[in-house]
């Protein structure tokens, strides 16, 4: 795909409107839509899965009959970017999750829910990100911690030896919230991934 025309943002919970705004700022020619139904999902070339509460989003996926369509699109190679809870939903293994919680398992990573602590332990950190020229100030809120990644996963940024931004094929995921800044670099990095995948 040379130039994706439509990017979807899963709009069930979390700061999805901020992701929409960031993507529109990256490229005025992009069409960005909020995805709440299977019909809307089939209109998009790639999907952003925002942060929020992973067990709640998981339940809402089933309620809105989106789990199987998203899994099908991911299996067909659709590019996706998961942030915070989105990382949990894309990972192959989730630690400290509910027994009835399931993820899409499309990025070979073991992730611990709230791995950096609760809301009071939220923090910001400067990152050096592979593929991004300038330092990036990342916002971590009840962030998941990547405990391990498989050989197919490229670590794009890390803190104290733990990956916080990863990529595997057409899938990218972050432990932080890029939509809660004014810095477009991470969203641009995802759009470049979509164009080249």
Provide an overview of this structure.
This protein is 26% helix and 31% strand. The protein has one domain: 3-Layer(aba) Sandwich (Rossmann fold). The strands form three sheets. It has a seven-stranded mixed β-sheet with strand order 2-1-3-4-12-11-10. The protein has a three-stranded mixed β-sheet with strand order 5-6-9. The chain has a two-stranded antiparallel ribbon with strand order 7-8. By secondary structure, it is α/β, with parallel strands linked by helices. It has helices spanning 16-26, 38-41, 54-63, 67-75, 85-90, 185-196, and strands at 6-10, 31-35, 46-49, 79-83, 91-95, 107-112, 123-127, 136-140, 145-149, 154-159, 162-168, 171-174. The model has no long low-confidence stretch (mean pLDDT 92). Strand 7 and strand 8 form a beta hairpin. It contains six helices and twelve strands. The longest helix has 12 residues, at 185-196. The radius of gyration is 15 Å and the shape is globular.
Tally of helical runs = 6
The CATH class is identified as Alpha Beta
CATH architecture heading = 3-Layer(aba) Sandwich
Q: Calculate Rg over CA atoms.
A: 15 Å
Largest sheet at a glance?
7 strands, mixed
Could you give the count of β-strands? 12
Mean pLDDT: 92
Q: Considering the protein shown, what is the CATH homologous superfamily?
A: Class I glutamine amidotransferase (GATase) domain
Strand order of the largest sheet: 2-1-3-4-12-11-10
| General form | globular
Q: How far apart, in Å, are the first and last alpha carbons?
A: 7 Å
Helix content: 25-40%
Q: How many discrete structural domains?
A: 1
Poorly predicted regions are none
Helix and strand string, N-terminal first?
Answer: EHEHEHHEHEEEEEEEEH
Any idea of the CATH topology?
Answer: Rossmann fold
Beta-strand portion reads 25-35%
Strand-pairing-aware structural class? alpha/beta
